[in-house]
Amino acid sequence: MRRIVFVLIAALLLAAGCHKKEEAKRYPMQGEIRALDPTAKTATIAAGKIGDWMEAMTMEYQVKPDTEFQKLHVGDKIDATVVVTDPGYYVTDVKVK
Fold first, then answer.
1. CA-CA distances (angstroms) from residue 68 to 42, 51, 62, 73?
2. What is the pTM of this model?
3. Is residue 8 assigned to a domain?
4. Distance between CA atoms of 80 and 96, rounded to whole angstroms?
5. Best CA proximity match to 28, nearest among 88, 77, 94, 72
6. CATH number at residue 59
């Protein structure tokens, strides 16, 4: 019985060690700010196609860090970086045109 428990524990530890977290992917983005939510630190951005990640569309993005969010105003045209992580995404490195 002890041997079975030992084998099960060893298998679980091995399986846990094999799970590798994917690195974040970064994509350049160009878009226009349509709305801002200062409480949630999110911006609704009408963006063009974002690499192989997303077709052109308008959607809400969290903006990190706060200093990047503070640069934004509705109507601004921006260049930025979208960081895609597991399980989410956010915008950073904002440059207002």
1. 11, 22, 10, 11
2. 0.76
3. no
4. 9
5. 94
6. 2.40.50.320
Confidence at residue 23, expressed as pLDDT on a 0 to 100 scale: 84
**Cα–Cα distance for residue pair 96/45, rounded to 1 Å:** 13
Length of the chain: 97
Task: Check residue 87 and give its pLDDT.
Answer: 83
Mean pLDDT, residues 39-55: 94
Containing structural domain, residue 42? 22-96
Domain count, the chain: 1
Q: Is residue 86 in a domain?
A: yes
Q: How far is CA 89 from CA 2, 33, 77, 82, in A?
A: 45, 17, 20, 7
> What pLDDT is attached to residue 71?
93
Q: Does residue 65 sit within a domain?
A: yes
H/E stretch holding 13 reads: helix 2-18
Q: Is residue 6 part of a domain?
A: no
